[in-house]
């Protein structure tokens, strides 16, 4: 009976302690373990130096066979940005990541672009900005705004990352969506 009780307590407490560890982690992994998709954007420009760092993070993403298939379009024009994301706030920047292909069936390019998107998303948060990955607008963007964005012939947008200032404090723990426990999604053999 004691063994069963210890197992039950362990199964209940261990995931809680793991989540607590992730929430308290303030080292380099904190931005990975505690990300959040910002929604509480406020007005305010992003300095060019910070924007350059965020873009460099995308450029340095890994890719299959080091092909680096991405193209980054930084949308600072607020009129264009509002056509792509209706609730944009002045000073927000949209970073559109595109690749050759239709954006739906070019699998390896999409995966590579996804790695670049994550780097951009995390770099923005590491610098204290809010960031949000968006794929919903891609159909409209690819059918109506390719020319406005200057996408080369044969390229399609895969995703965009919205980056901007957020209301303080940007609490990644309470603002984040619930995550599945590792015990539910990981198996060791």
| Uncertain ranges | 1-23
Into which percentage range does the β-strand content fall?
15-25%
Give helix % range.
40-55%
Q: Report the total helices.
A: 9
The level 1 CATH classification of the largest domain is Alpha Beta
CATH homologous superfamily grouping of the largest domain? NADH Oxidase
Instruction: Give the termini distance in whole angstroms.
Output: 29 Å
Provide the succession of SSEs. HHEHEHEHEHHEHH
- Counting DSSP E segments of at least 2 residues, the number of strands comes to 5
The figure for the number of domains is: 2
Give the helix/strand class. Answer: alpha+beta
What's the Cα radius of gyration? Answer: 19 Å
Q: Biggest sheet, open or closed, and with what strands and sense?
A: 5 strands, antiparallel
What form results from the Cα inertia axes?
A: globular
Mean pLDDT: 84
Return the CATH architecture of the largest domain.
3-Layer(aba) Sandwich
As for the CATH topology of the largest domain, it is NADH Oxidase
Can you walk me through this structure?
With 189 residues, the protein is of the alpha+beta class. The protein has 2 domains: 1-34, no CATH class; 37-169, 3-Layer(aba) Sandwich (NADH Oxidase), CATH 3.40.109. The chain has helices at residues 2-24, 30-33, 48-59, 78-84, 107-126, 138-144, 146-149, 172-175, 182-185; strands spanning 41-42, 71-75, 93-100, 130-134, 155-166. Strands 1, 2, 3, 4 and 5 form a 5-stranded antiparallel β-sheet that branches. Helix 3 packs antiparallel against helix 5 (107-126). The two termini are 29 Å apart. The model is unreliable at 1-23 (pLDDT under 50).
């Amino acid at each position: 009976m004691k063994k069963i009780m210890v197992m039950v307590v362990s199964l209940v407490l261990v995931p809680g302690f793991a989540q607590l560890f992730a929430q308290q982690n303030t080292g380099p992994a904190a931005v990975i373990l505690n990300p959040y998709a910002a929604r509480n954007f406020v007005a305010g420009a992003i300095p060019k130096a910070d924007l350059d760092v965020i873009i460099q993070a995308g450029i340095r993403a890994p890719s299959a066979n080091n092909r680096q298939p991405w193209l980054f379009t930084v949308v600072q024009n607020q009129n264009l940005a509002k056509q792509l994301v209706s609730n944009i706030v002045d000073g927000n920047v949209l970073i559109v990541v595109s690749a050759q292909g239709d954006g739906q069936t070019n699998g390896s390019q999409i995966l590579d672009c996804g790695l670049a998107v994550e780097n951009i998303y995390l770099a923005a948060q590491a610098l204290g900005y809010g960031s949000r990955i968006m794929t919903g607008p891609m159909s409209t963007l690819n059918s109506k705004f390719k020319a406005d964005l200057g996408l080369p012939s044969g390229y399609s947008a895969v995703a965009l990352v919205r980056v901007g200032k957020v209301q303080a404090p940007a609490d990644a723990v309470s603002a984040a969506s619930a995550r599945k426990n590792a015990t539910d999604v990981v198996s060791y053999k």
